[in-house]
Amino acid sequence: MKAPKALAGEALRAASLLLIVAPIPYLVGCTVGPKYKTPSAPAPLVYKEMGNWKAAQPSDQNLGGNWWEIFSDPQLNALEQQIEVSNQNLKAAVAQYQEARASLRYARADYYPTLTAAPSATRQRYSENKPETLSKGATFSDFVLPVNLSYQVNAWGRVSHNVESYRAQAQASAADLAVVNLTMHADLAVDYFAARTLDAEEKLLRDTVTQYERALQLNTDRYQGGLASEVDVEQARTILETTRAQLVDVGVARAQYEHAVALLMGRAPAEFTLPPLPLTTPPPAVPVGIPSELLERRPDIAGAERLVASANAQIGLAKTAYYPLVNLLGSGGFESGTISTLLQGPSALWSFGPSAVFTVFDKGRRHALNDEARAAYDSSVASYRQTTLSAFKDVEDNLAAVRILEQEAQIQVRAVEAAQRSLGLSRIRYEGGITNYLEVITAENAALSDEVTAVNILGRRMAASVLLIEALGGGWDRATLPRSPECCGAIATSAP
């Protein structure tokens, strides 16, 4: 049994240690810095470019994750599914998101103490000429098995602010991944419909070439029968060869769009062929919703807002520099001159105690750090609001395009019908000998030009619909943003 004086000494030391450690929970609960509040980004009540034009919006039709299925095109659906498997840009975005998650896990490790062990075994001999206070010529062994503990107390929110910042950055990276995913799918749909538009134009030109070949043969027969001049024959040949040249030229752009689709799917152009499929059907009605919903549906807006949250946490982290840095340090283990007694009770050793570091003078360094954090926050807020404004502009632009192109298509249909009637009348007049073949050629050129314009308008309408869906955020929703990216890897599996 220990002597009363020894027991009293140990009690006094324990009480002293308790007085030092007791305030630590209070320090952990005391957090400095501003509480985060999402910056204001006023949204208009309605979209300007909707005007009095209202697209049909069935109540059961919403943009889901596979938003391209709204076009009811099996070939497009099959191509879109391959992007998430093979697209290299998407894989790069996934890797960046995984990097952000790893950084967050690294920061969260500061919530826990760090333990290190450094066992050693030495054999040592003192010199016989050492000072008298040391054993001359002594030879001894020293076996040490130490364990060291260090822990940075989350005083003033020093650790939690850092973790909060990294968490927001990881969420912003998840939103960036969604932006890349949406962009890749939209780009493929635009290129696909452009290729189908050229398929429709190529079909139109082929049919026209067939008609012009018959017209050339008819003029040749009439010339040989004395009913037409050689000029009529050469005029028919001229428009035929000109149209053939246009038909060949379509192949250049068609090949480029096919190659672009292959690239988006992560394949070499030589390994991919897009079967011809002329575009004939108009685009579906796109459910637009109201402007306030856009703040929840655009991943780039969500990403910008998360960066604001990260910058706000950095302000709190900068403020902790005005307060002491509190650490808990401890060490323990065993030490003995012989290996057989290393792990016995008398060989044990330990030490434990807190430490605090106060900055007394830094020539305005902490003040500058706080100013820097606040300036970074203001910059991120401005970027967030600018991203929001750009998002509304994107929607308005494509709403206008969808609405105006539909009106233009209706007018162009009447132009095509009028051109066909004019061509029919000109042919009747030529066959009746009332006019020359130049009138027929003029009518044919007008009819072909109007038909090509109608095909191109249809292609532009499809592209505008795709871009409108992209501007609306596709099938994304802010609710899919991971709340705790450090423990949730669902997004990372979207592009293995």
Kindly describe this structure.
The chain is of the alpha+beta class and 496 residues long. It has a domain at 39-112 and 173-322 and 380-494: Outer membrane efflux proteins (OEP). It is 58% helix and 9% strand. It is built from 10 helices and 5 strands. It has helices spanning 4-21, 24-29, 74-86, 88-108, 158-224, 230-264, 291-297, 299-319, 365-431, 437-471; strands spanning 114-117, 120-125, 139-152, 325-336, 348-357. Strands 1, 2, 3, 4 and 5 form a 5-stranded antiparallel beta sheet that branches. The longest helix is centred in the middle third of the chain and has 67 residues, at 158-224. It is elongated, with a radius of gyration of 39 Å. The protein starts with a helix and ends in a 25-residue tail after the last helix. The relative contact order is 0.16. Mean pLDDT is 86; it is low at 1-9, 14-22, 56-60 and 490-496.
List keywords for this structure.
496 residues; alpha+beta; Outer membrane efflux proteins (OEP); single chain; five-stranded antiparallel sheet; 10 helices
